Amino acid sequence: MLEYTAFAEPVGARTLSALVSEGAVLAAEERGLIRVVVEGRREVARLGHPLYGEVAREHCPELRRRRRHAELVRVVEAAGLRRREDLLRTAVWRLESGLGADPEPLAAASRLAWSAHDYRLAVRLAEAAVTAGGGTGAAILLATVLDYAQLPDRARAVLDTTPEPEGEAARAELALARANNLAWGMNRLAEAKELLDATERELREPGPRGQIAVRRLTLTASAAQPREALALSAPLLRPGARWTRPCGRRCSAPTPSPCATPAAPPRRWPPCPRRWPTCRPGWTRSRRSSRRCTPPGRCAGCSPATWR
Predict the structure, then answer these.
(1) 8, 43, 68 from 25: Cα distances, Å
(2) N or C: which end of the chain has fewer CB within 10 A?
(3) Does the domain formed by 101-163 have CATH 1.10.3470?
(4) Residue 113, by phi and psi: left (phi above 0), alpha (psi -120 to 50) or beta?
(5) Is the pLDDT score of 54 beyond 90?
(6) What is the DSSP letter of 306?
(7) Which CATH architecture has domain 1-80?
(8) CA–CA gap between residue 112 and residue 280 (Å, rounded)
(9) Confidence of residue 250 (pLDDT cuts 50, 70, 90)
């Protein structure tokens, strides 16, 4: 039980009971080997002292360690991955046990580790997704995480070895990742723009072409070139211009309609009838405080309902 807790803490008490027995969990808690606390609706177990985990991990043979991680995967997946961190933890346990995993959950787990700024784990999971056959999407994810981890040379090597995909959307995504690496990772903005220009000339669909145009604008603005960025933004903001977001939703610049109802003029309240001695030319004193002054037509002691 100490080995399960050392490999998986914090771990649910019910998970430990399914792996060993409820009596063993109670005995370990009474002896101080583990601590069980209530977090919301969960009973979570942790080691009683960090040294217990170091000793358990150091003296656990390799084959038994792999078996322990495989059992953790089996029990947690059987109970259902009901929490967001369960996907990340089971993906790591699968790698530790050698069970393997599909590229989609590995990529999702890599994004979770990336959002937690655990770049080493995010790179490991993204590499596993590429090895599992994740294709261009997994390679782009790996290169992006490497760029964020300040490893642009490794990211460039991954992108260079990625074959050109068939669809225009995938080709555009690969070109965007390469442009990001050149501009932000390797400080080669001119080459990044040339790559975007060449890719845009090869594309025919408006969605990928719009993504290329938006990324060119983003790179130009981030390089402190506001005049050129404004010139690039003009076609994108033209009424009727259409493009597609990376999520697939179509967007368009607002187009004025001749049938549109004109906006109502701003409401003007009538002058406040409660006038008090003037404290400043054109100003009045509040009824509630003789020291507080308000602009003409307003009274701090009145509400809009009483101004009529």
Answers:
(1) 15, 12, 16
(2) C
(3) no
(4) alpha
(5) yes
(6) G
(7) Orthogonal Bundle (1.10)
(8) 61
(9) low
How distant, in Å, are the alpha carbons of 132, 180, 232 from that of 126? 10, 18, 34
- Model confidence pLDDT, tens digit, residues 176-190: 999 999 999 999 999
Burial 227-256 (b: 16+ CB within 10 A, else e): eebeebeeeeeeeebebbeeeeeeeeeeee
- Which pLDDT belongs to residue 39? 86
Q: Indicate the helix (H) or strand (E) that contains 35.
A: strand 34-39
Residues 132-150 pLDDT 10s: 999 999 999 999 999 999 9
- CA atoms within 13 A of residue 106's CA, in its CB half-sphere: 26
Report strand pairing: 242-244 vs 250-252: antiparallel
Look at residues 276, 279, 268 and name the one whose alpha carbon lies nearest to residue 307.
268
8 Å CB contact between 134 and 106: yes
pTM greater than 0.70 (yes/no): yes
